[in-house]
Each structure stands twice: as structure tokens, then as C-alpha cells.
Write a structure and sequence with these properties.
The chain is of the alpha/beta class. It is 33% helix and 25% strand. The chain has an eight-stranded mixed sheet with strand order 6-7-8-3-9-10-12-11, with helices on both faces. 41% of the residues are buried. Bound molecules: adenosine-5'-diphosphate and magnesium ion (MG). The site of magnesium ion has 3 residues, from helix 1. Adenosine-5'-diphosphate binds next to strand 1, strand 2 and helix 1.
Length: 326
């Protein structure tokens, strides 16, 4: 039987050395994150800008080396992969980034863009590749004739379709989508999201879906993790999460959902700004902005642990039995 867990991260850290005002410091972009992603699910990662979502995605897919910790994908420790192993892994796990404008080489025709992964992985004959390119274009809702055009001839939504076709070309099992619609017009965001969800079904994919938009995550994800200053503060099934979040930060995020820019809404609910990840607050990182923080929150970082059956959070005072208040 195949393992239901496709990706498993344990105590993953990514620290960036930085210099501020001549002094050396560390940005703890990801600080001790553990999570399991179940085969076939859409796993969301949410949190405000700068909380470490993209960095987490990068280290989980070994696009950047981690500082500490382990990532297991399909039973294999990613840090132990040699060149050949890494190449195989790159076929299994693909990435769709936020910005479809900079992700495409302006000098390359779309057909060549989509064909590229076949060449890298030495798949198929030239003729077969051409056929596959046409099939992929159709799969993502584009026209076969589009293969002879250049990126600048396409809208943002169409470009994201092209990038999706390229990601699918090598038949991956896993796709990291890092804010895949955030750069697109609101009017076409839903189309691209629907395409991604249709493809997930057709191709039996697993998604790691990074977003600051809780509305989208609520709509498409099965489970989610909430990040705050490099740490996961809560993981839960989406339905349970929205019905009754356990972490005060989660509650604030949910309260801000209907508003377009989460930062604007959050500033109305939370005190102050997100502190610097170079000098995060002691204890619980969230305590300076938390309405229910006690003395212990200033002194001691809460452990990330099971608070209710299947519900994990890092909080000294989780919101248990407060669903109605949320
Ligand atoms: P998010 O995707 O949630 O907006 P990021 O993962 O991009 O957050 O960034 C998390 C933190 O790490 C931020 O403070 C960011 O400035 C910092 N960071 C990201 N990449 C680097 C880097 N290469 N060097 C130094 N700091 C970085
Ligand atoms: Mg990001």
C-alpha cells in the first residue's frame, strides 16, 4: 500500500544571515516547522506577507537548502538526494509561482516553453513532444495555435495557464502553487483557481497551496496551516478551522476575510504591526498583538501540540469551546 503521507516535514528551519546597520543578524524565515501533507489533498498555508510561506515552500521542495530539519517526500529524505535523485524528484514535484509575467522567457515561443521539461528529462521523440504540447495547451484551455506565439501576446491569466501546462508536462504528483492568482485581476482569479482544481482531479495531484487570501483557501483547501513569524501556530481541517479556530491569531485572520487587503482589515482587529523576524518577541511571537495573552505568553514559546482530536495549535490559551465567540 502506498503511504498516505506524500510529504512530511520535521523541525524545518531556514535562517538567512543578514546585516542591518552593520550588525550581523539572522532572519528566522522558517523556524521549527513540522507538517504532513496527505496524498491527494489540497493543503493550504496562510498568513500575512513576510511570515515565511514562500520560504517554507522553497525548502520543502529543496529549491533552497534548509538550515535544519528533515523533509521526506514519497519516503525519501530530500537532503540525501544526489543529482540523479534530485532530477527525478523535480519531475514528481513542480512549482507554479505568483508572478506569471516574470516566469516566462519573453524570447521563447509558448510551444518551446511547454516542451522544455520534456527536453530536460529526455522524454519522447520530437513528434511525440509536439503532440503532447498541443494536448497540454488544450488541457489548460488554450488553443493549439498559441504554441507559435510569444508570452507578451498573452494576458496574466493565460500566462498562468501556460505555466500550469509546463508544470503538468512531466506528469508530476505534487504541485506547489505559491500565490498562483495573487498577481491576476480579481475577475479572472476564479477561472484559474477552477482550472487548477479541475486538473487536480484529472491528474490525481496533491497541492501545497500558499495564499494570503483566506477566502480562496476556504473554498479549495482540505486542510491548512497558519503561519506567524516563521512558525506554524495552527493546523486543522478547513471546515473545523473556520467553524472554530483554536489560535487567537487564526480568529483575527478569519474575522478579516471579507476584506480585500488582509493587512488593512487586520490592523483594525489586531494591535500594532507584525514584528521584525530578525528580532521576534520572546515567548509566543504573537503575544504583543494578542488580546488574551497572559504572563506566560511573554516568557515561554507555546509548544505546537494536539489541543483537540486532530487539531493542533501553538497557544497557551487555545480558544476551546469558544466557537460562537469567534
Ligand atoms: P511570505 O511568502 O509569507 O510573504 P517569505 O517567505 O517571502 O514570506 O519571507 C519570510 C521572511 O524571510 C521575510 O522577513 C523576508 O524578508 C525574509 N527573506 C526571504 N528570503 C530572504 C533572503 N533570501 N534573504 C534574507 N531574508 C529573506
Ligand atoms: Mg510569498
Amino acid at each position: 500500500m502506498t503511504d498516505p503521507i506524500i510529504l512530511s516535514a520535521r523541525n524545518v528551519k531556514k535562517y538567512y544571515p543578514v546585516k542591518t546597520l552593520g550588525k550581523k543578524g539572522l532572519v528566522k524565515a522558517v523556524d521549527d516547522v513540522s507538517l504532513d501533507i496527505v496524498r491527494g489533498e489540497t493543503f493550504g498555508v496562510v498568513g500575512e506577507s513576510g511570515c515565511g510561506k514562500s520560504t517554507l515552500g522553497k525548502v520543502l521542495l529543496r529549491l533552497e537548502d534548509l538550515t535544519e530539519g528533515t523533509v521526506i517526500f514519497n519516503g525519501q529524505d530530500l537532503s540525501g538526494l544526489n543529482r540523479a535523485g534530485l532530477k527525478t524528484f523535480r519531475k514528481q514535484a513542480q512549482v507554479i509561482y505568483q508572478d506569471p509575467y516574470s516566469a516566462l522567457n519573453p524570447k521563447k515561443k509558448i510551444g518551446a516553453v511547454i516542451e522544455e521539461p520534456f527536453k530536460i528529462h529526455r522524454l519522447f521523440t520530437k513528434q511525440e513532444r509536439q503532440k503532447k504540447v498541443v494536448a497540454l495547451l488544450e488541457k489548460v484551455g488554450l488553443h493549439p495555435d498559441h504554441r507559435d506565439r510569444y508570452p507578451h501576446e498573452f494576458s496574466g491569466g493565460q500566462r498562468q495557464r501556460i505555466i500550469t501546462a509546463r508544470a503538468l508536462s512531466v506528469s508530476p504528483e505534487f504541485i506547489l502553487a505559491d500565490e498562483p492568482v495573487s498577481a491576476l485581476d480579481v475577475s479572472i482569479q476564479a477561472q484559474v483557481i477552477n482550472l487548477l482544481m479541475d486538473l487536480k482531479k484529472e491528474e490525481s495531484l496533491t497541492y501545497l497551496f500558499i495564499s494570503h487570501d483566506l477566502g480562496v483557501v476556504k473554498h479549495i483547501c482540505d486542510r491548512l496551516a497558519v503561519m506567524y513569524l516563521g512558525r506554524i501556530v495552527e493546523t486543522a481541517a478547513v471546515e473545523e478551522f473556520f467553524a472554530a479556530p483554536l489560535h487567537p491569531y487564526s480568529r483575527a485572520l478569519i474575522a478579516a476575510v471579507p476584506v480585500v487587503d488582509p493587512r488593512i482589515a487586520l490592523s483594525a482587529i489586531l494591535e500594532g504591526d507584525v514584528p521584525s523576524p530578525i528580532n521576534p518577541p520572546d515567548g509566543c511571537h504573537f503575544h504583543p498583538r494578542c488580546s488574551i495573552a497572559g504572563d506566560i505568553c511573554r516568557r515561554k514559546a507555546p509548544r505546537f501540540e494536539e489541543k483537540l482530536s486532530g487539531r493542533f495549535a501553538a497557544c497557551h490559551f487555545p480558544l476551546i469551546n469558544q466557537g460562537e465567540a469567534a
